[in-house]
Amino acid sequence: MSYPETVDNWLECIALPEYLAKIPAGHVLMITGEEFWIDGNGVRMTTEEYKRAWPGVDPAVVWAAKKRYLAEHGGGVRPA
Questions:
Q1: pLDDT beyond 60 at 80
Q2: Which of 4, 36, 38, 73 has the smallest C-beta neighbourhood within 10 Å, fewest atoms?
Q3: pTM, 2 dp
Q4: What is the spatial distance between Cα 52 and Cα 58, in angstroms, rounded to a whole number?
Q5: At 23, which helix (H) or strand (E)?
Q6: What was the pLDDT predicted at 51?
Q7: Are the C-beta atoms of residues 53 and 43 closer than 8 Å to each other?
Q8: Among 74, 29, 67, 65, CA closest to 47
Q9: Residues forming beta bridges with residue 37, ordered by sequence position
Q10: What pLDDT digit, counting tens, does each position of 14-50 carry?
Q11: By 3-state DSSP, what share of the chain in percent is helix, strand and coil, each rounded to 5?
Q12: Percent residues over pLDDT 90 in the chain
């Protein structure tokens, strides 16, 4: 049995659960007005492309929920 030897080989072995891949990881609003979303897999899409790729998920609604959660819960790791 062979084992992965490079970083890329290891990353290919780690499957991201679908529920995490659906969550927007980033939001880009260009100065030209174009808007893009980055899904959990790192794929850049327009809003419509995102909705087609992940049926039932509106990235703007999820992004607003993430921002609210972070605002209410300190925005990340707190020092000890």
A1: no
A2: 73
A3: 0.71
A4: 10
A5: none
A6: 96
A7: yes
A8: 29
A9: 27, 45
A10: 777 888 889 999 999 999 999 999 999 899 999 999 9
A11: 40, 10, 50
A12: 54
Residue 58: name the closest of 70, 50, 69 by CA.
50
- The burial class, CB within 10 Å (0-12 / 13-18 / 19+), for 57 is middle
Share of the chain above pLDDT 70, in %: 86
List the one residue out of 58, 46, 48 whose CA is nearest residue 22: 58
Q: Which residue reads 């020092």 in tokens?
A: 79
What single letter denotes the amino acid at residue 2?
A: S
> Which two structure tokens, joined as six digits, stand for 50?
């995102």
* Residues 36, 66: Cα–Cα separation, whole Å: 17
